[in-house]
# Entry
Amino acid sequence: MTIDEMPATITAAAVVTDRADRTDLAVDSLAGRIQAHASLTPDAPAVVDGTRTTSYAELLAVATGSVAALPGCTDDRVAVVVHKTTATVALVLGCLVARRPVLLLAPTMLPERRDAVLRDAGILHLVDDPERLATPGIPATSSGPDRAQGPASGTDDALLLTTSGTTGTPKVVPLGRTAIDRFVLWAGEELALGPGTTVLSLAPLNFDISLLDVWATLAAGGRAVLVPPTRAVRGRVVLDLLESERAEVVQAVPTFFRLMIDAAAGRQVPGVREVVLTGEPVDHATVAGVRRVFPSARVRNVYGMTETNDSLMHVLTGDEPTDRPVPVGHPLPGVDVLVHTEDGGYAPFGDGELLVRTPFQADRYLGDRGSAERFVTVWTSRGSREYVRTGDLVRRRPGEPAVLVGRVDRRVKVRGIAVDLADVELVLEEHPMVTAAAVVAETDDLEGHRLAGVVRRSPGSDLDLVTLRRYCTSRLPTGSTLPELHLTDEPFPLTITGKTDRPRTLRAARQEHERTRHGHHAHHL
Amino acid sequence: MDTTLTTSDLVRDYVIDEFLPGADPEQVTPQTDLLNSGIIDSLGLLKLIAWLETRFEIGIDDTDLDPENFRNLNTITAFVERPRPTPGSV
# Structure
């Protein structure tokens, strides 16, 4: 990257950096900044959770109390099931203050997967319900599984997030203190967050985008409004909240904005000054809808992943050509990108897989499973440097914002959650009464993608759809469950190269479904 | 329209059409847990609620969003048939 392509908003020298000087930066810590707000403006509102507002002083008091009630040594990693409440935010803050690495677990994560993650991360202590931890005398923790590794002493890890991981065990992404401090500093300056700024938090607290919605907001002395998952999908409720809470900033995956656009029906929310679209590619229609609903807002398309956090950004002007994808734009300050081109070389520009290196990134997965494929060392003219392989295919030209053109694998995003179709097929094929599975992702106006699957039963099996769906729910995480599933006893059609022809398989299953459906209805008449 | 269909039948047919295409209606009993079985997820719940609002002309507000109201055909039927203020009287 050359200096002239950097956005003009480099205000913090601290965010332009190299790995070598990561340890001695004079960036105020996230926890330190929140503590400062608690002491300088103790009564300022920090977190809004339903009808309850918690001030900075109250938040810090609950944080300190919660972390003191945690079991184990003070440097043991701890896992928290992050229900979307003030108590959770307080406990995570307590861990940040106490420098205790904390793993944020989705409340929807299946127990078997959770246990596997805890083992991978070497965590003995799990807090199921941070609310109860804030109430002395009631046990809120349970022991994690056996075979845990030792404590995480001596590391810089602060927050541990998980990748979505369609199958098997999700990988744990350790984000270091400095990486997080730099990110909240960048986000706060970029979005002009400050005391009194209200930011709506629609995402689950275990999602990386909460680092901006909640943590950059609190670092800046702002006010984070927590929206629980059942309300976040109600477009009208979200628009009401944006208005009644006077929110200035809102970030979400495109699906959530589409729900708002659908509910708006001509309504506008001019109080919002910053809209951030992230998590998956966004289409032009959604961007146009966002502009209608938020007429005063600057609209940004931000590209990143859990391992690297935000990496590229494009401020949408409204005159993006609609015959090509909505751009992901240019690297953020301090972010370095490479394109792994088809000839096997690495170059700043070209067509190929995107590699990024950000001041905010992790440098491994905890337990190292899968690290070697994701975190790679590339020799450049400036020496060897560590980059993160994104798996996204990019088209990048000098002087033009980059656009994403596909994937190197069969991964798609459903509501911003990564799903690998090959993994979903493997899970289906692991069922004892299944011979083969074909999974197709079709674009969906609301969710980005929608999965459809065809499953071939073993000969003689009486596997039915309700049983199969229950199996899917027990094995596949949210987002990768298949809204459309078909059962067949016929072999799948093949391509000329002998591979399963998935689109034809699905078409045949749908035709068969239409036939039986009509037959079924005729039978009832 | 066939007026002999009960609320439970109507909801079952909708659930199968929308979330379980191809399934035998007999597999979905009044007690089948639609949420924990993965038949209906959070966005599916939203679709179901929108359909209930239109089909039965009921207003569903945020205080009704308790998932327990939508767990199975029995609870959905009870929810739909629950006495509520007529639209416009609020």
